[in-house]
């Protein structure tokens, strides 16, 4: 993708909900074999670090409801590796991403160089694919629960370190089909407390972590142009940090 390629932005309502509508569909034998081949290649590149767990795949998106099913992560990896499979492999992995708003600052973090998705780019943490750990029951799923889990895992911050959650928008990656839901949260924690938690309890997902003054966000984005995740700007606009346009 180039900077000029459009990434669809789906508007969402404050009461957006996520629902499991069906079971994971079976794949034709030939397609399943190709998925396995692509998964094995990715595992080789990553030194066997990938885990074929379940993640949520969106079948349909409206302002108030995202409906879909649980799918294997290996199908997601195959879809990312070969976007041409989109027609035969309709996987649209759904992820939750935060915009942490502190007292006059926003949190950014740089992703690992070896990541499967948006490697080495600056992101608004925390973020992660929605998995069964955030399921409320067999039908309903909580993106906010996923965000809080990622907050603890990636930044070492407890759930009560943030509040006032607000769904912002969903940004769609045209090539991979990934759908990133932005959720803004506010924190009373200081920059020093966030840095200390990240250093002591974070999982190393972000290196480095930057706590950028709101007034300095445009300059930060300009300085790292081409190395910032494409969902970041729409999230910041919807959060009121950046002006639209």
Total of helices: 6
Any idea what the shape is?
globular
Task: List the quaternary state of the chains.
Answer: single chain
Quote the distance from N terminus to C terminus: 20 Å
- As for the number of domains, it is 1
Low-confidence stretches at least 5 residues in length (pLDDT < 50)?
A: none
Q: Overall pLDDT, averaged?
A: 94
Description:
The protein is of the alpha+beta class and 245 residues long. The protein has a single domain (16-238), classed as Nucleoside Triphosphate Pyrophosphohydrolase (Alpha-Beta Complex), CATH 3.90.79. 26% of the residues lie in helices and 28% in strands. The protein is built from six helices and twelve strands. It has helices spanning 29-45, 73-81, 143-155, 191-201, 217-223, 232-238, and strands spanning 9-11, 17-20, 54-61, 65-72, 94-101, 105-110, 122-123, 127-129, 140-141, 162-172, 179-187, 209-213. The strands form three sheets. A five-stranded mixed β-sheet has the order 1-10-11-5-8, sandwiched between helices. The protein has a four-stranded mixed β-sheet with strand order 3-4-2-9. A hairpin with a 3-residue loop joins strand 3 (54-61) and strand 4 (65-72). The protein is globular and about 55 Å long. The mean pLDDT is 94.
């Amino acid at each position: 993708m180039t900077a000029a390629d459009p990434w669809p932005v789906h508007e969402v309502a404050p009461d957006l909900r996520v629902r499991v509508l069906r079971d994971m569909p079976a794949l034709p034998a030939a397609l399943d074999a190709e998925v396995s081949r692509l998964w094995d290649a990715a595992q080789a590149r990553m030194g066997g670090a990938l885990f074929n767990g379940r993640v949520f795949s969106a079948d349909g998106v409206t302002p108030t409801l995202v409906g879909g099913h649980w799918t294997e992560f290996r199908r997601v990896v195959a879809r990312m590796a070969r976007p041409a499979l989109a027609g035969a492999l309709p996987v649209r992995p759904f992820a939750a991403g935060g915009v942490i708003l502190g007292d006059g600052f926003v949190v950014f973090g740089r992703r690992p160089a070896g990541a499967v998705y948006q490697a080495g780019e600056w992101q608004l943490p925390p973020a992660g694919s929605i998995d069964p750990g955030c399921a409320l029951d067999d039908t309903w799923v909580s993106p906010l629960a996923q965000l809080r889990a990622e907050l603890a895992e990636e930044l070492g911050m407890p759930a009560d370190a943030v509040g006032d959650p607000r769904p912002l928008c969903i940004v769609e990656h045209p090539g991979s089909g990934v759908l990133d839901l932005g959720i803004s949260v506010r924190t009373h924690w200081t920059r020093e407390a966030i840095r200390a938690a990240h250093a002591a309890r974070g999982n190393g997902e972000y290196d480095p972590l930057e706590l950028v003054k709101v007034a300095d966000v445009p300059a930060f984005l300009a300085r790292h142009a081409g190395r910032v995740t494409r969902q970041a700007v729409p999230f910041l606009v919807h959060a009121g940090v950046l002006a639209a346009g």
